[in-house]
Known about the structure:
Blueprint: E1 6-10, H1 14-26, E2 32-36, E3 48-51, E4 54-57, E5 63-64, H2 74-81, E6 88-89, E7 96-100, E8 103-106, E9 111-112, E10 115-116, H3 149-157, H4 159-174, H5 183-186, H6 188-194, H7 200-210, E11 220-223, H8 228-238, E12 241-243, E13 248-254, E14 257-262, E15 269-273, E16 275-278, H9 282-289, H10 294-301, E17 304-316, E18 325-327, E19 336-341, H11 342-345, E20 355-362, H12 375-390, E21 399-411, H13 416-430, E22 434-436, H14 439-442, H15 446-468
Helix pairs in contact: 1-8, 1-15, 2-15, 3-4, 6-7, 9-10
GO molecular function: oxygen-dependent protoporphyrinogen oxidase activity
Main location: cytoplasm
Keywords: Cytoplasm, FAD, Flavoprotein, Heme biosynthesis, Oxidoreductase
Amino acid sequence: MAQPWRVAVVGGGIAGLAAAVQLRDRAPDGTEITVYEQSGALGGKLRTGELAGQPVEFGAESFLMRDPAGGESAAVALVRRLGLTDRIVHPTVGRAALALAGQLRPIPGGTLVGVPGDLATVTTVARPDAAADRDEGRPLLGPDADVSVGALVRSRFGDEVVDRLVDPMLGGVYAGRADDLSLVTTMPALARAARVEHTLVGAVRAAQAAAPRAPGAPVFGTLAGGLGTLVEAAARASGATLRRNAAVRELHPTPDGWRLTVGPTRDAEQVEVDAVVLAVPARPAARLLAGPAPELADTVGGLDYASVALVTLALPEPELPELSGFLVPSTEGLLIKASTFFTTKWGHLRRPDGLALVRASVGRYGEETLLQRTDEDLAATVHRELSAVLGVPLPAPVDGHVQRWGGALPQYTPGHAGRVAAARAALRVGHPTLALAGAAYDGVGIPVCVRSGATAADEIITALEGSAR
């Protein structure tokens, strides 16, 4: 009788947990799944804490409800699989603003991550160069080409659209610069349209038409009680053995699978498994690949990351605009790059005592030295800059929290998707029972990471079924 499969998932973030759930659902009964997490907590960048007596997110705040094709996102599908659908809540205030020249100006609607399909809609915040977006008789992007978002948009709409609109919107997600970030990875729908359309306006409109959204349908959702409930439910549903504080230090192929070296050097544990899902950031993944696939380690480990800090303040009855928050262009010279008015944006968090939770994101790629301040200094600077942007002195906070995420956000340079595809293709040939998953490869956001983990699990199942035959 065949022995049950043994699968190791290295990394207990949402991608690793999604892989474990998919393995439990699709692998044969009796499959032994073990999740190894280096830290003491599961969930990765999903972390629900408590401030002023109520749950608050110290990491990712929400998930997209729809996928790029207009269907249910992978995050919603996982929520449904875990029986948490009745916990989904949506923003009650969706309007956001840009902090420009000492004023809060509404972010124009109808754009694709800030890239307009109608230049007239953005003239309140930027002066687009409409004459530059000429039809030159060929698609904007070649069949296998990739460019930075900034390079494409600057060449077609001018600098102000990038600096005042696209850059702060991408910076709010990636903490990076539009001039450095890959179009194919960060805006795949626009990249697909750009391979057909001859103008950027046409490409934006085509991308929007390819993913229609019902009027009034919510774009984002989160879970009442916090996204930590998603982590806990996924861990339970996976039926996996959960090894916290268990660093996987080495990975070596064996005739029948893989040998993992787990734990400290002086008391290392050797674990034999049939397959491995590697769901950790790029650099630790590269260290583990250095033994079995050194030619891929440099490729995977070449991905750089930005560090950020999230400063959350509990403010007694502040004067806040009826906005979900605001973004700050890097040209404004502020430490804050984005702010969310939690208790305004999310109606389920509003309190009868008027206490408001406000979170600010601090840190852009290449500016890590600005984060080398004490928590108290960061909180004081955020409080001061929020007051300046809002034009009113905010009351002193009654509570606060600083969450630092060192090396948290991948910086996808042009060509990233091709490099990842080549690495995965090489693994399928040389090491088919080793799969890569997570934000390092497929993009940020809960739905992307969930889909990445589930896809890696499917690849492992296919490989093990093939070896059994």
